[in-house]
From TrEMBL:
This is Calcineurin-like phosphoesterase domain-containing protein. InterPro entries: Calcineurin-like_PHP, Metallo-depent_PP-like, Metallophosphoesterase_sf. SUPFAM superfamilies: Metallo-dependent phosphatases. It comes from Plasticicumulans acidivorans. Residues 118-277 form the Calcineurin-like phosphoesterase domain. One of its GO terms (cellular component) is membrane. The lineage of its organism: Bacteria, Pseudomonadati, Pseudomonadota, Gammaproteobacteria, Candidatus Competibacteraceae.
Length: 340
């Protein structure tokens, strides 16, 4: 059986949680604003839109960290110029397009038997409207991956504000190639106004919500929170509402900064991104900056806190400047396993 045929046959069934938005035939389709009001709570939507408008461009203050280099566009040009003068800008661009597939086996004691062997393709920090050549390479690499479903941990757009439609056009192209059902969350580069468009592509956004994956009588809970780094619109309590305490549950968070609350809420696995693994690293992979208020050991690759395991993607795309050094971009395939 081909990979694509097996994906269709084995894809888990979505049930429970908060039901996906349904397309209902009507003489006049609702506007995106109306759909947003129907999709999110009034407070969540007001909070997100207000902060995007008032503080979305701030370089200093707000969020979990004081300094937000991704919002300081003038320094981006300085970095590019410096790398060109050093003669390494082109090499950095080639590094940023050298996507690798990383396989990460995860043993979860509470994992139901029917989900043993489940493969999750984890993409993060796509920044799809940055480099067209990167997008082409990403589409090629995705087709080589064998997985049962896809999760995306935020940052669809390259910049933190401005026109988001080019990123959506690129996402539409990518979506057709992604394996299985696709679940995603928003990051600090994303506007909540993207929500209707993203869900029209068949991507289920988890906005402080959860869904239930079923195989036979077994259930696996997949939750997602809104951006915990800059906008701080995450609500783990709401995302985990009605998830049984003894159930196996996975949380998608844009940044590993949510590790403390996630672990003490009973999640078994946290999948995150945001840090890019540092992106510009010294030899040996030492990050010059991680842009996250959490232990450095949680900012790239697998980690553990209390009884919870975690994985922070080094990022699929690149931000600030489309270059990488000593920190390759990655597509991660997490294979869930039960203890032997």
């Amino acid at each position: 059986m081909s990979i694509q045929a097996r994906r269709l046959a084995e894809s888990p069934v979505l049930t429970g949680g908060v039901p996906p938005v349904q397309q209902v035939a009507a003489p006049l389709p609702p506007s995106d604003d109306e759909r947003l009001r129907a999709r999110l709570s009034e407070l969540h939507l007001r909070q997100r839109l207000s902060m995007e408008s008032a503080h979305g461009k701030a370089v200093f203050g707000y969020g979990r960290t004081f300094f937000h280099i991704e919002n300081w566009y003038s320094i981006h040009a300085v970095i590019r110029g410096t790398l060109r003068l050093m003669g390494i800008y082109g090499r950095g661009q080639r590094n940023a397009r050298a996507l690798k597939v990383v396989h990460n086996p995860v043993t979860l004691p509470a994992l139901p038997a029917a989900f043993s062997g489940l493969r999750l393709l984890h993409l993060s920090d796509l920044h799809l409207d940055g480099d067209p050549e990167y997008l082409h390479t990403l589409c090629e690499r995705v087709q080589e991956v064998d997985a049962d479903l896809t999760v995306i941990t935020g940052d669809f757009r390259y910049r933190t504000h401005g026109d988001w439609r080019p990123a959506m056009a690129a996402l539409e192209r990518l979506r057709r190639l992604l394996p299985g059902e696709v679940y995603a969350i928003l990051g600090n580069h994303d506007t909540v106004r993207m929500v209707p468009t993203i869900e029209d592509f068949g991507i289920r956004l988890l906005l402080n919500e959860h869904v239930v994956l079923e195989r036979g009588a077994d259930r696996l809970y997949l939750a997602g929170i809104d951006d915990p780094h800059y906008f701080c619109t995450d609500n783990i309590e709401r995302a985990a509402e009605n998830v049984p305490l003894d159930a196996c549950a996975i949380l998608l968070a844009h940044s590993p900064e949510a590790y403390w609350q996630a672990a003490h809420s009973g999640f078994d696995l946290l999948l995150a991104g945001h840090t890019h693994g540092g992106q510009l690293c010294l030899p040996g992979g030492f990050a010059l900056m991680t842009n996250a208020d959490c232990p450095r050991s949680f900012c790239r690759g697998p980690f553990r806190y209390c009884d919870m395991q975690g994985y922070t993607s080094a990022g699929t795309g690149s931000s600030i400047v489309s270059v990488r050094f000593n920190c390759p971009p990655e597509l991660v395939v997490h294979e869930l396993r039960r203890p032997q």
